[in-house]
Give the backbone structure.
Amino acid sequence: MELVRVSRDVWGQEVLEGVSWDLLPVAFGIGAVVIVGHAIWRLVRRRARS
Amino acid sequence: MAVEAHVTERSAESAARIQRHAGIDRLFHWVTAVAVLALLATGLLPVVGVEFSWVTIHWMTGLVLTLLVLFHLVRSLFWQRPKCMLIRPRDVSEALQAARAKPGEPVRLPGKYTLAQKLMHLALGLAVVVAVVTGVIMLAKIDTPFWKRDPYLLAAGTWGVVYLLHGLAALATLTLVMIHIYFGLLPEKRVYLRAMTRGWVTREELGAYHDLERWPGRRAGRS
């Protein structure tokens, strides 16, 4: 998985193009993990209290 | 008699209500929310293969978001109490203490905002400011009715850094917006959602999560 997008200019040098869009599912995944993790923790805590 | 009782009940109810967010701040929040969602959709949907003419909607909405951020900066600095949003070491220690406390054990409640709310504001604020600043620079690369494009404004490598920061800010915003919406919809957090739609919380609701005495702007008439 790439972290950045690069291209080559007319002289063959690497030029930074921006963030790699491979990171889009990672960003979505981090959000999903936090949400699911918190939902599980909330359920466990509620059961422990009742 | 019944009307009198109803009026008394209504006035007692409104006396128990505390304004958490003024109308102008609620309007700011929801317009910003629409702008951010529109920017995420127009910026990221083409990445996953949803092709449409997104550039015009994106830069126009970006300009709206820029104006909203400027409005929020001015309003929070001159009409509100920005200190309410500062994260202090005692916020962290009190939040940790509250998390470790056994049921019924007294804990120090936060003022207007909890540590989690302050952290979300800081993270989302940073991501949006980075996206706005880099987005404004990127406007130099497109033709609009107001200006002609100048792609040579910056060196190629510098443009790369601007695009990198803009992309990172967009990805961070996506994650944070997902988390923000989730917490806003939780039943135990609905009080905050109502405060952001109708403006008020009851004294009882406030007492469960916040300490009115530590909400200094309230007594001074500033939110």
In short: The interface with chain A takes residues 44, 47-48, 103, 156-157, 160-161, 163-164, 166-168, 171-172, 174-179, 182, 186 of chain B (CB under 8 Å). Chain B has nine helices and two strands. The radius of gyration of chain B is 21 Å. The first strand of chain B starts at residue 17 and ends at 19.
